[in-house]
């Protein structure tokens, strides 16, 4: 094939967005005869979009120098911006800012031009991601004006995208989401070039996640998936797409699909260039492994998430809880909450904190966590938040021995999770409803709720939850538990069997201090003056068999 024919085929592949074929064609032609500037820029973009980052940076660098040689500073700056924007999206801010600085120096004598607006926008993204959305937003507004003036759809998209994210980060979610919806109109209608369309998809979905807007996240993730499927060779955004898909498939109960998406995301994001979202992919994989009882595998995934820059909480704490290491779980969550200030980030920790404190028998701390969850849910006002807060509140009421208000709250939580099409969360609430009905003496309804939850857990292969139901089924049923938590009931049975605190600690994998606290709480709740009195109470109320 002649060089001319190879170039024609490469350009045709580029036009139909077959990025891998375009890259191979341009690279083959370039090896024979150096490409001109237009084709060199096409080679750089095709290489970037099919995941050949080193070749992409090399081609754009050549294009940058060729434009300087031609005395075309604006085109040289545009190529420098392209290199910097790719690095910035990948999370490599320092080298990105270096390329932006070079672009600015090249433009010293150019006066006002579109490339200056692009530099303004990308520096604003660095400010926004660096924790200063207020300053960044001023630049994004200025960039929007420039984009409208010069009719640059890509520039306008990125400026509005940043403006909307700044609103969200400043706590003005409604204003932010309105701007992001407007951005996506242009993206989905094909007005935006592929590189910036991909950045917009990923950023908008991240914004939905920040607001816990599950409905929008589902819609835009589905759109991103379709967009990626139309470009089979596309790499940079496909891994991010799979991470979001994994999160949503997990919520929807499609755990097999979610597991496959998580593994694919890890493969895509791990190389040859490591993306900053790799940690999120490993974290999601760990979450699914934990929920299915693959605890050793989950441990490894959380470790890899941490090594890749994603904090492993609350998943790691819930893993420790599943391993019976309750004090370790509590320590992780207390430390994480102490260093976390932003309400959305605290919310992601608090549900696990409430569950852990109930398991420890520290109902007062669980109550404080549930109250804060509710405050955040009211402030941010998203259905997912309200469902989570109601689940936690119901669990705490049940732990406090208030079965009637617990049942009302848990019924509300169950309805909220059903509206969100979240079968696992719904089943978890069903278990609590079953326990509340049991405490109220309604054994038939309790059995119905627990059986319903079991069917869902079996479909999902949620082995830890199935085992917890098996433990509940083996427990003798008594008419009264004195408002004791499941952990306190467990400790009471062991006290009644004559075990010392040290022996109980070994049996349950707890510290002696924790066991002593459980024993003390139990004696207070049942009004027993001593361990002998607690033993008598347990037999009288049929909490253990003679």
Automatic annotation (TrEMBL):
Pfam family for this entry, one: GerE
Membrane spanning stretches: none
Residue ranges of domain HTH luxR-type in the record: 477-542
SUPFAM superfamilies: C-terminal effector domain of the bipartite response regulators, TPR-like
Presence of keyword Transcription: yes
Keywords carried by this UniProt record: DNA-binding, Transcription, Transcription regulation
PANTHER family, per database record: DNA-BINDING TRANSCRIPTIONAL ACTIVATOR DEVR_DOSR
Lineage: Bacteria, Bacillati, Actinomycetota, Actinomycetes, Propionibacteriales
Keyword Transcription: yes
The name this protein goes by in its record: LuxR C-terminal-related transcriptional regulator
Organism: Nocardioides vastitatis
